[in-house]
Design brief:
The complex is a heterodimer of chains A (about 325) and B (about 280).
Chain A lengths: L5 E3 H14 L4 E5 L3 H4 L2 H6 L4 E3 L4 H13 L3 E7 H7 L1 H9 L5 E6 L17 H6 L5 E3 L4 H13 L4 E4 L4 E3 L14 E4 L4 E5 L3 H14 L4 E5 L2 E3 L3 H11 L2 E8 L4 H11 L5 E6 L9 H7 L4 H13 L2
Helix pairs in contact in A: 1-8, 4-6, 9-13
Chain B lengths: L2 H25 L4 H5 L2 H11 L14 E3 L6 H10 L39 H15 L6 E6 L6 H12 L5 E7 L2 E2 L2 E2 H4 L5 H7 L3 E6 L3 H13 L5 E6 L22 H19 L1
Parallel strand pairs in B: 1-2, 2-3, 3-7, 6-7
Antiparallel strand pairs in B: 4-5
Helix pairs in contact in B: 1-3, 1-4, 1-10, 3-4, 3-9, 5-6
The chains are: A alpha/beta (about 325), B alpha/beta (about 280).
Chain lengths: ~325, ~280
């Protein structure tokens, strides 16, 4: 078996920022003393004149980003998901979301896969928080290819975008020629018994779960849903109609994230069973990332179990 | 300042106070105290200092103004209306559901508003971003913002102040409306940020303390700020909350309530009398 390329989406983020500026995009990148970790450090090295470190002050980070955007700049503001979406929620809501300014939030170290730093840094609430802000676009890419595509799509989008990246190196899912469009999910493989809708690093697990189910005679449609908001309603409805049961899979609290977004659409259109795989409304803990993902049920085996549960509810 | 210029500014500020009281009375809600305290500095900035074009509110080389203490919106709206950004009659629609004049400034709905504000502490961060933006673009526009003395209890103010000082944003001038009162009482009773001047100095700012109702002092301070290189300037305005309406002056209770019919009548009589004296 050929070696699978592994890369953290945060690395792809840093590289994409450099690439954008190299291609002449007039972007400004802000960070709050985490440039080495969020990977905006790559941009700082390549384009120091367009990089600003505001220090450990995430509220001000978002406000300064808003002010820069109000003077016509396209701004990327980066921190860990916990401090971007969490600490600076209200600045994002009032200074960026309400005036609909052109700020792209690059939030890294999202989810349980932060690993050893533990619960204080494992943000499983960010998607829920960001979803409640009118006009906010939320992107949660599955691999480095899609992460790059998300950054390129965000810069073309007029208005605020929240991009969610991970710390952990994850296997590549997509080919180099992958085309990403904001608001569109994509069917990775067809199946008729149920649909598994996944985002972020859970896409790889969903694909693996699909293979395991196939071996048991269950045919699953696998969908990658990188845009959490606006959710691809058309595709979700199609999945409900054609397969009659849905399992969602995300590295986020089961409250308020992808699972909620899918359930909201399904319950109001084509009510079919929806079972959510995610962090089960608990705080995380320290440990190696991959080990933690299994401990919290963020793996193919749990998706398989939930798939059977969803089918049994049909 | 020449006496005829000063007189025109005094008339402008009085008309802004009248517009403030009228709009809050008609809205049956709003913040008169902290609006009336900043009418003089707004009159000076919008008439004598800021590079603006009311016919072209989004002119990209204009000076920027951010009302960090967004609840003083009635004073800013009255100022903008008097400058011709929108009709003065519209002030009476403040806070109504079919009006563009939102309770707090909205940059997408209201001509002349450079930043949406209202949640305290956030405006100064945006102003810092604008000042950095001007420098990155090599533009010479200046950025002005007004903070409340209660507002500076917000931690974000000091995050922004630290960055502005360290980045030597000499194109940024911040006013603190030092009227000494906030919602729950005097700033001493609640959680005083005093000494305000020493705090900003410690954050590497140029600091000037003046009488916030004295137009000569405002002019001098703004000129010093403009000519100061290598540091942002904080102008601490010693003001009277509710300035110009006798029963509102220095009264905590007039932070955030509208006058009733009788109170409105008294306020308008006082302000109009002062205006007539000036115009005589």
């Amino acid at each position: 078996m050929a070696d699978v390329i592994k890369c953290a989406t945060r690395d792809a983020y840093g590289k994409a920022l450099v690439e954008l500026a190299d291609k002449g995009e007039n972007i400004i990148v802000l960070d709050a003393d985490l440039a080495a970790a969020t990977k905006t450090g790559m941009f700082k090295k390549a384009h120091p004149e367009r990089f600003i470190d505001v220090g450990i002050a995430e509220s001000n980070l978002m406000g300064v980003a808003a002010g820069l955007a109000a003077t016509g700049h396209t701004v990327f503001a980066s921190s860990f998901a916990m401090f971007a979406a969490g600490r600076a929620f209200e600045q994002i809501r009032n200074s960026i979301g309400y005036p609909h300014l052109n700020v792209k939030i690059g939030a890294t170290h999202a989810g349980i896969s932060v690993g050893e730093d533990g619960a204080s840094h494992q943000c499983c609430e960010d998607i829920a928080l960001m979803r409640t802000i009118p006009g906010m676009v939320i992107l949660n890419p599955a691999d480095d290819i899609e992460a790059r595509a998300c950054v390129f799509a965000a810069v073309k989008h007029d208005g605020p975008v929240y991009m969610r990246f991970g710390r952990l190196a994850v296997p590549r899912v997509f080919d180099e020629d992958y085309k990403f469009e904001i608001g569109k999910g994509n069917i990775l493989s067809e199946g008729g018994d149920l649909t598994i809708i996944a985002s972020g690093l859970m896409v790889k697990e969903a694909i693996e779960a699909g293979e395991k189910l196939k071996a048991e005679g269950i045919s699953a449609r696998i969908v990658n849903m990188a845009t959490i908001k606006p959710i691809d309603r058309e595709l979700v409805i199609d999945c409900a109609k054609k397969t009659g049961a849905i399992v969602t899979a995300e590295e986020h609290n089961i409250i308020g994230g992808l699972g909620s977004a899918v359930a909201e659409v399904v319950s109001e259109t084509v009510p079919v069973p929806v079972v959510r795989v995610g962090v089960n409304d608990v705080f995380g803990k320290s440990g190696p990332a991959v080990e933690l993902l299994h401990i919290y049920g963020l793996d193919a085996d749990n998706i398989v179990a939930k798939a059977k549960q969803a089918i049994s509810h049909k | 300042m020449e006496s005829n210029v000063k007189k025109q500014l005094e008339i402008f500020a009085l008309k802004a106070r009248i517009g403030t009281v009228e709009s809050i009375f008609n809205a049956k809600a709003g913040h008169p105290g902290g609006s009336l305290s900043i009418c003089d500095v707004l009159a000076y900035l919008y008439n004598c200092e800021m590079k603006i074009d009311p016919a072209n509110p989004s002119w990209e080389d204009r000076d920027r103004f951010v009302l960090s203490k967004g609840h003083a919106a009635p004073a800013l709206y009255a100022t903008l209306a008097l400058k011709g950004y929108f009709p003065v009659e519209d002030l009476k629609t403040l806070r109504k559901s079919d009006s563009y004049l939102q309770g707090h400034p909205n940059m997408n709905k209201i001509p002349g508003i450079d930043m949406s504000t209202g949640s305290l502490g956030q405006g100064i961060s945006a102003a810092v971003g604008m000042a950095i933006g001007a420098k990155l673009d090599g533009k010479d526009y200046r950025v002005y913002t007004v903070l409340g003395d209660g507002e500076i209890e917000e931690g974000e103010v000091w995050e922004a102040a630290m960055l502005a000082g360290n980045r030597k944003l000499d194109n940024l001038t911040v006013f603190v409306d030092f009227n000494g009162l906030q919602i729950d009482g005097t700033i001493e009773e609640v959680n005083s940020a005093c000494p305000i001047d020493e705090k900003f100095k410690a954050f590497n700012w140029n600091v000037i303390t003046i009488d916030g109702h004295n137009l000569d002092e405002i002019e001098n301070a703004v000129n010093v700020a403009k000519n100061t290189k290598g540091a942002p300037t904080c102008i601490v305005l010693k003001t009277v909350k509710g300035k110009g309406v006798s029963y509102m002056e220095n009264q905590v209770g007039w932070h955030g309530k509208a006058p009733n019919e009788e109170e409105y009548r008294i306020a308008m009589a006082e302000l109009n009398e002062a205006l007539q004296k000036l115009e005589a």
